[in-house]
Design brief:
Elements: E1 10-12, H1 16-28, E2 52-54, H2 57-67, H3 74-86
Antiparallel strand pairs: 1-2
């Protein structure tokens, strides 16, 4: 089992459907794509990944204490942060 982790704590939306749609669109229009970077003109990259959050554990902890009614222990908060921001 791999023990790798993200070196920059970030959380993105993983829209596999949009990635699949973009890939299909580029493959079907392969005659239009002449050079290596020309495929970027066929499909907007903002449609694939809309947002990205960079957040350290301390800022995650502050935000959770401000908005969440249930009080989590530091260990539980760390596990939640690690799951969403640090794990691959």
């Amino acid at each position: 089992m791999s023990r790798s982790y993200k070196h920059v704590p970030c959380c993105k939306d993983h829209t596999r459907g949009m990635k699949k749609c973009a890939n299909r669109y580029v493959r079907r229009n392969y005659l239009v794509v002449s050079s290596g970077k020309a495929y970027k003109k066929l499909f907007c990259s903002w449609n694939i990944c809309d947002y990205k959050f960079l957040k350290s554990f301390s800022s995650f902890k502050k935000e959770d204490s401000k908005y969440n009614r249930r009080k989590y222990s530091d260990k539980e908060l760390y596990r939640m942060w690690y799951k969403y921001y640090k794990m691959k």
